[in-house]
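Box 3.1. Reading complex inputs
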Amino acid sequence: MWGGRFSKTLDDQFAQLNASFRFDWRLYDADIRGSIAYARALARAQVIRDAERDALIDGLVQVKQEFYNGTFTAQPSDEDIHTAVERRLGELVGSVAGKLHTGRSRNDQIATDTRLFTLDAIRNTQHAILNAQHALIEKSEQHLDVLMPGYTHLQRAQPILFAHWLMSYFWMFERDYARLTDCITRVSVLPLGSGALAGNALAIDREFLARELGFARVGENSIDAVSDRDFIAEFLFDAALLGVHLSRLGEDLVLYSSAEFGFVTMDDAYATGSSIMPQKKNPDAMELARGKAGRVIGDLVTLLTVLKGLPSSYDKDLQEDKEPLFDAVDTLGALLPVVAGVIRTMRVNADKMRAALDAAMLATDLADYLVRRGVPFREAHRLVGAAVKTAEARGVALADLSLDEYQKIAPEFGADVKTIFDFARSVASHEIGGGTGPNAVRAQIAQARAVMNRREQKAKKG
Amino acid sequence: MWGGRFSKTLDDQFAQLNASFRFDWRLYDADIRGSIAYARALARAQVIRDAERDALIDGLVQVKQEFYNGTFTAQPSDEDIHTAVERRLGELVGSVAGKLHTGRSRNDQIATDTRLFTLDAIRNTQHAILNAQHALIEKSEQHLDVLMPGYTHLQRAQPILFAHWLMSYFWMFERDYARLTDCITRVSVLPLGSGALAGNALAIDREFLARELGFARVGENSIDAVSDRDFIAEFLFDAALLGVHLSRLGEDLVLYSSAEFGFVTMDDAYATGSSIMPQKKNPDAMELARGKAGRVIGDLVTLLTVLKGLPSSYDKDLQEDKEPLFDAVDTLGALLPVVAGVIRTMRVNADKMRAALDAAMLATDLADYLVRRGVPFREAHRLVGAAVKTAEARGVALADLSLDEYQKIAPEFGADVKTIFDFARSVASHEIGGGTGPNAVRAQIAQARAVMNRREQKAKKG
Amino acid sequence: MWGGRFSKTLDDQFAQLNASFRFDWRLYDADIRGSIAYARALARAQVIRDAERDALIDGLVQVKQEFYNGTFTAQPSDEDIHTAVERRLGELVGSVAGKLHTGRSRNDQIATDTRLFTLDAIRNTQHAILNAQHALIEKSEQHLDVLMPGYTHLQRAQPILFAHWLMSYFWMFERDYARLTDCITRVSVLPLGSGALAGNALAIDREFLARELGFARVGENSIDAVSDRDFIAEFLFDAALLGVHLSRLGEDLVLYSSAEFGFVTMDDAYATGSSIMPQKKNPDAMELARGKAGRVIGDLVTLLTVLKGLPSSYDKDLQEDKEPLFDAVDTLGALLPVVAGVIRTMRVNADKMRAALDAAMLATDLADYLVRRGVPFREAHRLVGAAVKTAEARGVALADLSLDEYQKIAPEFGADVKTIFDFARSVASHEIGGGTGPNAVRAQIAQARAVMNRREQKAKKG
Amino acid sequence: MWGGRFSKTLDDQFAQLNASFRFDWRLYDADIRGSIAYARALARAQVIRDAERDALIDGLVQVKQEFYNGTFTAQPSDEDIHTAVERRLGELVGSVAGKLHTGRSRNDQIATDTRLFTLDAIRNTQHAILNAQHALIEKSEQHLDVLMPGYTHLQRAQPILFAHWLMSYFWMFERDYARLTDCITRVSVLPLGSGALAGNALAIDREFLARELGFARVGENSIDAVSDRDFIAEFLFDAALLGVHLSRLGEDLVLYSSAEFGFVTMDDAYATGSSIMPQKKNPDAMELARGKAGRVIGDLVTLLTVLKGLPSSYDKDLQEDKEPLFDAVDTLGALLPVVAGVIRTMRVNADKMRAALDAAMLATDLADYLVRRGVPFREAHRLVGAAVKTAEARGVALADLSLDEYQKIAPEFGADVKTIFDFARSVASHEIGGGTGPNAVRAQIAQARAVMNRREQKAKKG
């Protein structure tokens, strides 16, 4: 295709290294959408005749159908998706195919294709996030009255609602969704019409192209347009951070489904066994949720490293952008529905959670009790610490120290101190925005539903 | 401070490992702003009396002044900025200091501090970006008529305007700025009132706290609030991608200031010499711009790796968030003004750029010539490729083939083919939005100025 | 120092960005050792007189002492450790100081300094590893008879010895130690005598320099020598993988010290409390062990990214090598002794471990029982799986199914099936090299002791 | 296969996420080699009869042949390579297939497979490195007399031999090779016999297994053995650093083949053209060499992140180890031969290199001239710097200042100063070990050849 000035064919090993068709064929839909729009633009600019435009479009539609049906046959000379499509188009429509590339470079073409692909990928990822968020909300609503230990440093800290824990992941996903929405504004920029780097010399109508392809605006600088891969990097970061959230959820559920915690039981449909130990039931889905963050972070590092220190405008190194993009898209696309399924189907063992609450988790409530009786908090903290120490030394629970013992520690303790040792009361005392009180959690869920509604409205429209 | 239940002092080496004051003292301003707001909120909630509030605020203002003046004296027991401030406050105002921490945990406190710090860091980074963008615009306007070779694959591709090349960096920085603005919406969320993880049990007014501290809204879930470090990760990604842009600019300017290119000359104020080679003048500033992307990417990887697989809610691992944040902030804060200075002061060698244009860079124009005479582009490309080969074989420039030779290659070539070999004409033929034509570049600069104005207006307001 | 050809002083912000003294002062000992050796070599090559050599050495010793005593006073002009030392040397010994740099460049000098520093860092890191390994061996020997559940997928899998679990970390550290030893062969290569990049023109004796400075051999190519940072990257990788091992140990001990597991109790000297929850005792040391892997991985990524795509020979970007190196060295130097201390002091709760063993963990033993009675393993696995299912459905332990029930599942089960349900017997059946049988573990510890002895012998010698 | 205790089939999406056959089929050869050895070991331990062993081996050989021939037909139930082989083996040899897994777990099996694969991968990578090194040596020997500018900071520094530059890459690859050799000692450790994590209960002969499979020794701890992925991480690091070296060579050759440098010309067999610009000849091979470092660094980060903070022993997350391993192996396997081909075929433009030498590059020689006349080097540097400034101000070359002008700068300059301005003389003055003098470079090449011989001898033997 570009061989006019060359006097040798490519070395075989180099040709294989150089070719990208083995992975970029996935862009066929985007590539052909782009070419159809470009054919229209060429006709509007009177570079080709309307009949030529129609022939090109008919041929392109047919090539696309062949890809879609799996009947497209690649040739060894198909260096990339662009040359593959152009080659096949030529077979179908003859020499007019040679007019399609007028004023267009693979540099602006691949940038256009990848942006179209990324826009679809973002929409699909957002859809999968919404599904996981629905699972969290539903599960929360089904178990609104379940108490569990809240942890910090993986040590029992304070009693919380199970629904409050679950909803904490809702808000992580909410940020992931919002970041992807922000990302769209930087993906939805048309590169086509930038040529190799200097722009298009055919006075093509770029606003028309943008409208045809659904881009929000036209790229402002042709040099930047052909080498800007920020939008992929940004998507990969958003994906990596979503991956990190999934890894934290994975860790929590691996812990909670261990025999020692026993808070949840994975459904058999989402667990596996051992090849050697017949009793095993393993939470593989959530281990993969934990582990796959690694590869998405790796994808991000790959692209950032490729971009680092690259000379201006298009360099071949940029071909290395697509495999990490595809890998991240595929990873999240496979993982998110499974995570949603795990949440929907897991059994919640409220009794085990309840049994894991111990009186020491109310030490803060006890300190607050003293505060209400005028003791400065820092002093109250010290006094309750002493009570904890005494209870540990005696081998009894904090709730089981006698009033006498309490009063020896601090005279402010009264007979009502025992009312403190009520987990539900403790939870109910946190009725503050974002807190774990039952009403606060109900309000939180309502807020989450409102967020979802807004999004689903918007997704329907746009 | 938390030692009530403990029966031993800390191992020395562990105490040093555990303590964060050696780096988190930098949060003093944010920490004390947060504590003043919290004292006000405690008084509003009637947890402390107004006189206590005033005593606390007076003391806090004094502690802040000590930090600001450099007269604050740390003690070995100052585990972190929070305990250091509380300890000093106690020395200044007595036991009322022990009331400040009522209902507050270091978990929601540090999250609040870090968000306040990050908001400042974003504003400062954006300010530094604007400065660099001004430098690019000014330099572009000063050299509007300078032609240079545009490269792809670092091979001469097509003639472009020097201003067009410069402005390509403007738009990269524009995206960096916009990403940081988007980031703010996720930083500007109040964690205070989330306590250790369960929320605040004192019915503190979180909306009041948000207003006092300038947060746009209140965090929706207390568990998430104490362990959410997404805002740092997002800032670090934005910083890393900005770093990548600086690294590309660094690479370009290292190349362009080499003897071989010679397109620009670094000002003596931004270059260094060699300890052994007296003739050397090295573009260290731009090499550092290229290299420092590495550390910011490293900072991002650090945080993502720390977060990966972490159990829900606060874990001590999260203490590892601050040093990468500080490092990225400091790196960009040191680098951006120098890059702006380099751009402003570098000498533009228009003659060297002009001399680097060669006729072969007009091969695309030549192909377009044939296209205008009805040759399909792909065929035109092949024919011009043959012309290039002929010229190379003969050892002459493409412009120096005779008309006869041209017509032997393609009869469509006419006598006017020689008019193609005019670099200014080629540039002028790219008068398309985003293209390198002189009018297009002027329009681009005007668009850039408009973007800057909008931002500066907004920054003034908000 | 290099300003002869320059007509302006440096821009202040650039000077600060450019200068490295704020961190590379740490190389003073290596730098001065290198300069003393170089002064000797200059005298041997008759470039300077013996009296000049002696004056230089006396002065250098004094500068070193000033650094050591903390009395060295930096000047704003001290761009880096080399210029700082040379400047101070000039103040002490006069113009002869100007001869020290003959034939030497900062390029070969900094490479030499950094290698000397890294050699020390490796030795110190190895020493700290040995200490941690001793802690593991001692703790193993103290608890040789303690049984605990072995996990896969964090699900109870098979009974093992606690000592076997502990010793698994010994072998990870063993590989870390060995990797560092391998690394030494690539660090211990002399760059000095490579000049700026072309070599030294004074016929300096490089073998002499290598001997003086303790390098194992002389660098083979001067261009490579001034820009080779592989040895740092390799050290950082070794550090990162050691960090990963520490993170896994951290995770295990965070889990094992949770209330749910309760297998170990952190000593009060290695735990911290909460600012708000008086009962809390947090395993901060092991959380930091888990989290700090992130920063060392970040350090590695920083350097690899800096090096990626760098033009041949020395570039200023290479200055970015030192901070990640120092950070990794400091991180491990602070962390390893604390981890050793945690292991030495933690309380082992053998009863809790024992209580966590359940009969289902012997399912594999049960399958092996059937295998010994001629059932193919895959079939035996299926049959025992059915037994597990039956027991779960009935809500009883696997050991509590009746013989009748067992025989209904498989007629091969005999009355002796109940002898299987003995955890110690199960452990004892794994007396294979590397297995968890008591004798195998004792042999493993003996092997570990032998490894340690060999190393300590070698460290003493070399 | 492990479904005995389960009462549901897997969710489809989870089954797909969980399955690894789509990538781990590549381990078929290693897996079947391992199974054959294990069948032998089972027979030696009298767990199976000799006839059973033979049936198993015959069946396994047949399965391997099916894979090799491409006739193996996967089933949806083939979760991974192990279950696929076992399933097919059962079809071929009947129920005896169910005995092969006795005492073996997929945990020790996959570890064994991956180590066998990695050993092969290392050998292949080393072979490809040797090939590239041969190309460097040959090219060096063909151009022993070619002078070129040596650069630091990409500024012309001192004249060097082209062969010296080329050979600098030889020594980078030498370290890569050596690191891989060191890595082998940590890969060549047998995990088989470690069972799920506790060891093998059948008294299998692990030393026999090690011998059969070519492992150097037996793993010391079964828990470590099933979760140790250090050997992959180490390989990936070695690969990443090799990738970095290739990226630097890529950058150099991209620069040197630009029109501005013009030092080398890519062979047409290793260059590509442009889809739009007929004159373009792009160094894609070397751009890919530069860019592909990114993905290998990404692979390394992926694995380190997966491993970070993982609980002891086998977790499903470890399944994420194989794709980065395969990717790095494939990347280097595709890239190294092409790089060797590029070096072998590129045209060296000695005249262009010579033309790029300028007199200022001899400033250091000029300073050395003054040193030989008794001027301290630092003073000589300053004086030559002044000469450079004078020449620049006058717009002449350093060599073209008059003797008078030189003597005005320093009376030590004599008439012989003009003899300094001879590039070959300058190069010849660096006849020091590792320097750029012609004899030194010849000695360096001889040393390189000796290294290669030793290796090729060793590779032949073992």
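In summary: Chain D has three domains: 9-102, 107-146+161-355, 359-428.
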